[in-house]
Queue: 2 jobs
Job 1
Amino acid sequence: MSFRLLGLCDALLNTLAEKSYTTPSPIQIEAIPAVLDGRDVMAMAQTGTGKTAAFALPVAQLLSGGTNPLAKNVRGLIIVPTRELASQVAKSVENYCCNMAIRCGAVFGGVRIEPQISMLKDGLDILVATPGRLIDLYHQQAINFEQLEILVLDEADRMLELGFIDDIRSIQNLLPNQRQTLMFSATFSKSIKALAKSMLNNPLVIEVTTANSTVDSVKQLIHPVDKARKSEALIYLIKKNKWHQLLVFCRTKRGADDLVSQLKNAGISADSIHANRTQHARTLALDGFSNGNIQVLVATDIASRGIDVNQLPCVINFDLPYVAEDYVHRIGRTGRADNTGLALSLFSEDESKQLQTIERVIGCKLPREIISGFTPNKKASVKTSDGELYGNFEPDPKLKSKRKGEFLGRGKRLAKSSSSKRNR
Ligand code: AMP
């Protein structure tokens, strides 16, 4: 399959050739022709599947043919949950539109509003925005939606998780009813389906991945380790594997800052992004990480959205997330596009519940491997790579193992008969 067959114009085909994109990804194959046809689309796509191009390319093509935007007007609006994602998506849109007369920009909180107001003065073809700042701009009469033709809601599930539902509803009321709407979400929960029902008109529903499945190209491993030795284990792994670019996830802002200090003390260049840091500090950290000046970026879940560094070889969960879907989002930072990735999780005994939930959500049991020299004192659920068993882990009875007869805990194997009963 080639991009030309999807109906893209020469300007975009040239850009894709310059970027060495030869083959469209599955979400692009499904979404691009539908959007070009003017259809509403509801697509389930994880980060790393090429979903940004799946909406940005056809939206740019549709808008390239129309009239110029009037003052303060936007013709295409892309709403995203976080500042980092806004800036990342805007960069991608700009790159894709580099051979077209399309004006685009981004607005998000945490930075001065005045430059954004002046950017909007002459109108824009495509605006990427976070919900709160968009509403602020509307109240300051800096933006007008009369000419709006296309609305994209990116990472809609994340938007709901972060409590933006009221903002989204308010924005919906400001937009013309006559418009094309595209919604992208990593999961199709009930609330996402309800939102889609109220915002989309007879949409084409695209599902290119299984619900909450993790990207196949990512190798996942659980490293059981004592909680008190996690930083030491992380430093050991970084030095042993000589990772030049590593993304580490922490649950808390304080934990992220503490970890950065410990990494720096061990001679490893590191920085953090989380909600308590200024937008400027976050941008500096992300830029330093992208251009290779910072070896380890420590992020909390919210701030991590929008990190798109090509060929990120490995991500490490320093803590397991409380929300299992965050695990899927986190590991989606590696193995992006056609590259394979590695996702390691440092797992301490107190995180057994989270691990069980993650395994239930992704639908399979993750392999355990002890890091040499870091055998946990408090033995959690452990199976070493050579098959040795430790601990007295009792598996979650609701966990559906992918393969019958697979190891599910000390001395327990899922018998074929009980499995079929359970799955009935
Ligand atoms: P996304 O899922 O939109 O965050 O995209 C993930 C990464 O894949 C980004 O770095 C894109 O530049 C890249 N990408 C998107 N589509 C393609 C494609 N068809 N071929 C190669 N890389 C792509």
Job 2
Amino acid sequence: MPDSVLSATDLRKIYGDTVAVDGVSFHVGRNEIVGLLGPNGAGKTTTINMILGVLEPTSGRIVIEGVDIAAHRLAALGGTNFAAVYAPLPGNLTVAQNLRIFGLIYGVRDVAARTEALLDQFELAGFRNMKSGALSSGEQTRLSLAKALLNRPHLLLLDEPTASLDPASARDIRGSIREFAARGEGGVLWTSHNMYEVEEVCQRVLFLSHGRILLEGDPRSLPREHGKATLEELFIAVAREPLSLERS
Ligand code: ATP
């Protein structure tokens, strides 16, 4: 794919007898938001952790902006970032300290200005001197997203970014991420169990089941193509009867 920020080829992860990811291939374009969907245990987090370089694939290839992460890990991952509810920032640091320290770790040139811009963008300025651990879960999510944008990533991995947010905050976050992708700054791989959100945000979805991609396409037309009224119905069918969908 010519303007892919991410391309994964025949990615596989095996733990003993468990095949967590079973030969998946996909790409994410520069200003695209791609949804990675699938029931619990389908292999979404394992896939994301391999792309982040946290887990080593059993086999397969991951290329970020043309750079193979197995060969040039630092160069490939320098333009990547992620946010996930299960990876909160150090709770004993204040909001501003967290952004500053991560900014320094990432080698952001204008850390102070970048921190201020992100505090404003995610409405965190009023919390700057508060310990991160004392923030509400929605505020922590906003901080994780601010941290994820510090290095102006070209590939953003978001694992259920709106899981703990109220509907108004979730909408704001979706707006911020859509803006990020629309500006052409990067591509986004987004996991979510909220099909309404997926339809609103993602241009393309990948349905994962038992570590394999069963379906791929536009979340607005995919349900009809498979005889389902909604994305949620299609999701439930994929989760319950993956084999019948594979045959159809
Ligand atoms: P969820 O929606 O519940 O977060 P997921 O799609 O992210 O699920 P993964 O966490 O990627 O799923 O797990 C895929 C499979 O791999 C599951 O069957 C899980 O039990 C298994 N698995 C994940 N990590 C390990 C591990 N370290 N050792 C053994 N099995 C593992």
